[in-house]
Amino acid sequence: MKDKIAVFWFRRDLRLSDNSGMRAALQSGFPVLPIFIFDPKILGKLTDKYDKRVDYIHQALQALQEDLLAAGGDIRVFHAEPLSVFAALHKEYDIASVYASRDYEPDAIKRDSEVEKSLKDRGISFVTVKDQVIFERDDILKADGTPYTVYTPYSRKWKEKLEDKDYRAAIMKTDHLLPLKKKALPRLEDIGFKKTDIAFKRPRLDATIIDDYGENRDFPAKDHTTRLGIALRFGTISVRACVRFALKHNGTWLNELIWREFFMQILAHFPKVVDTCFKPQYEHIKWRNNEKEFDLWCAGKTGYPLVDAGMRQLNETGFMHNRVRMVTASFLTKHLLIDWRWGEAYFATKLLDYELSSNNGNWQWAAGCGCDAAPYFRIFNPSAQTKKFDKDLAYVKEWNPDFESLEKEPIVKHEFARDRALKVYKQALNKNKES
Q1: What CATH number has the domain spanning 272-434?
Q2: Which of 240, 297, 325, 423 gets the highest tally of CB atoms within 10 A of its CB?
């Protein structure tokens, strides 16, 4: 007779400390086998095999393995589809339960449903636990039980509901780990990827940045942002730790964490937003979708120094300052009248901190078709934004150093583009009224 065990499936929570799902597994009463799965279905969608995000995950797993070994266990890492992994584990172990932290993206929900059914057929329970958010899909609702679709009232209710228990660290004893002999992780090459120049560092909360985050966050040259997007995306830091720190240090940064959860619950309640406008009437917009202009935008060759600097920073580093993200997204959708889905997909391939819900929500916000109280005629003027947030051109000179020698007519004049966008948007909304 084999002894019963529990399995903990690491996914978007690549840390041992303050991990709610792992704590639940350790409290199950069974020795816990930690696993991670590189899913070929997901990896297969990444055409560039020099993908820093995969390398980041790989390095985070190495750090996680160090922590598990120090606690008396280890991790088993697989490169296979989840259903086949659990079928193989079922043959090797007598599994009582599989635990995982809950995921809210449509594809993840579908995957977990399939895994749950497969495990149930084998008499194994599948337990998912809240970990990557403070409040889930139905935790923050209006009085009538419907979801909030505007950030400000959602944020107000979020703060009203917040209690100490919601952001308390998940303390756990690791003496229930299944004793394992150390096993080397698969190499990046084994899963079809290449080593990149990214260097994983255990994330930390820096008071010198967060204390005056509100005053400095809009100025890209200051580089005064936390750079914790990728850590939150892959769970190498706990959102509870971030909220505890924000409550102590800076309300503006707390609002940014709430924006993250707002977009997550929008995606959970309205999964259609993955590929359709939140406001359906905006599906009538006659996008120009000029491929040549899109390519110039992607390459950072629009003739607008701030837009081009932002795109070059993204292409070179996988990061773009948030203020500049807004300007570049507004430029694509309003100045060039290119479908927001094109820009959203491009950012998805480049951003190290790519998060479906936030990327989608922010692109729809920029295009004016998302869950935003502001009217569609908010159109950023790239030149005015430069004067306001990069007046000395320090950011522009860093990422677009040849902008003066290449100075030429921009691909479109701001006033012309603004008038054109307003006309096209207005026509779309009038058409919707008529239909």
Answers
A1: 1.10.579.10
A2: 297
Q: Give the homologous superfamily in CATH for domain 1-131.
A: HUPs (3.40.50.620)
164-188 pLDDT per residue, tens:
999 999 988 888 999 999 999 999 9
Q: Residue 372's pLDDT is what?
A: 77
Beta strands in 17-101 (DSSP E): 32-38, 76-79, 94-101
Output the pLDDT for position 407: 58
228-246 pLDDT per residue, tens = 999 999 999 999 999 999 9
Residues of the chain with CATH 1.25.40.80: 140-168+207-269
Q: What are phi and psi of 263, to 5 degrees?
A: -65, -35
Say how far apart CA 322 and CA 218 lie, in whole Å: 8
Domain with CATH 3.40.50.620 in the chain: 1-131
Asked whether 23 and 131 are in contact (CB, 8 A), the reply is no
What token pair was written down for 422?
């307003």
Q: How far apart are CA 241 and CA 83, in angstroms?
A: 33
Q: How far is CA 76 from CA 64, 88, 346, 387, in A?
A: 11, 12, 33, 52
pLDDT tens digits, residue range 87-106? 999 999 999 999 999 999 99
Instruction: Give the residue range(s) of CATH 1.10.579.10 domains in the chain.
Output: 272-434
Question: What would the mean pLDDT of 378-387 be, rounded to a whole number?
Answer: 94
Domain 140-168+207-269 sits in CATH at 1.25.40.80
